[in-house]
Amino acid sequence: MRSSTRPVRGAGHDAVNMGMMGRVPLLRRNSLSASFRSATSFSSMIPPSLRQRFLEWHRSLPAFTRDRMFSMSEMEKALKTQGKWLSPVLLELGWKRKRIWSATESYHRVWVPPPSSE
Description:
Elements: H1 11-20, H2 23-40, H3 48-60, H4 63-66, H5 72-79, H6 83-92, E1 96-100, E2 108-112
Antiparallel strand pairs: 1-2
């Protein structure tokens, strides 16, 4: 005797399952391809004011403070934004990501300004 909680496999069951369950992998696949497309145009989603705010903030720093490595958390606090929005701006402006390795502790991630950054 079959339990009432387990569906009976048959033509009717498969047709009902294809209604919802068959679409789930298709939706996931479409979602992944859509997220890939949006990742390629990620910089187009950045508000134009963020780039301007960053440039104004960076230019307002004294020269000895401006020409050094910055941590992402430092820039996030100064600009009151998240790194996921700031990272594409930095890359677009020619900044480089760098890891500083240590023998005693884990590495530190920093952003290095381009040589001609003023």
